[in-house]
Amino acid sequence: MAKPAAKSKPKTNVVAQARAGNKKTSQPFSRWAWENFKSLAGAVLIYLFVKTLFVEAFRIPSGSMIPTLLVGDWLFVNKLAYGPTIPFTNSHLPGYTNPKHQDVVVFVSPYQADNAPDFTPTLVKRLIGMPGDTLYMRAGVLYLNGIAQHQGFAANNYKGDPNEVNPDFDWQHTVEIKGSRFGAPPAQPTHDNWGPLLIPANHYFMMGDNRYCSKDSRYWGVVPRDNVRGRPLFVYYSYVPGPGDDSGPCSGQISDRPVSFISDIRWSRLGHWIR
Questions:
Q1: Can 238 be counted among the known catalytic residues?
Q2: Where are the domains of the chain?
Q3: 160 burial class (0-12, 13-18, 19+ CB within 10 angstroms)?
Q4: How far apart are CA 68 and CA 154, in angstroms?
Q5: How does strand 203-207 pair with strand 122-129?
Q6: Active-site annotation holds for 51
Q7: CATH class of 51-269
Q8: What are 204-263's pLDDT values in tens digits?
Q9: Which of 65, 115, 171, 235 is the most buried (most CB within 10 A)?
Q10: pTM (2 decimals)?
Q11: Alpha-carbon span 7 to 10, nearest angstrom
């Protein structure tokens, strides 16, 4: 008697199984969007945390700090050194050091009525006067506590008007020393002849290295300690600015190449530490 034929197993449809598996594991759009949002939000929070507490990028737009800093330099600023600023306030967390003479400092400027629309720009200058210091200038020579300071670049750079009289200088009368061993202050301060000034507590006197091309504490006054934002670390990118980037006779070198931020990079300045 013949045995009944064995039943053949149904053929497996591999494509159908793959499609079925995909349907089971695929995520709905809402979940995909939420996961990507969380990743993006996390990256933004990390960026804001680092920018607020540790390091921030800063671009040099003018020639006021030539030769230390050039137009077209991009810097990393150490915000932890002097104490990072608490967001949405002017208060600081503790830093590991304090500003001192000759530091290059990034800070928020005191109010500048003629600098619309940004009346309190973020600037970078050199710290010249500490609280309690006496500063004055005679014939373009700066004196700190009666001692003439090294002129450096200020002695040979582009000269403006040494006898310039500006209404912005009038603030100096509020901190002038009338009777001291340094002599009487001039009745009308000029660009190269002013002081002696006594720097108030918790304030700093800032000047650009390129003194004849620098609008600094001589014009808008002393800087409160709370306005300090950090200390520049090094130049991470630099290019020779084109005609559209220059700041007049104070800008220094001007590129004649098209798209100079790509075609005229200052390779030797990359990684330059700022002192």
A1: no
A2: 51-269
A3: middle
A4: 12
A5: antiparallel
A6: no
A7: mainly beta
A8: 999 999 998 899 999 999 999 999 999 999 999 999 998 877 656 677 788 888 988 899
A9: 65
A10: 0.81
A11: 9
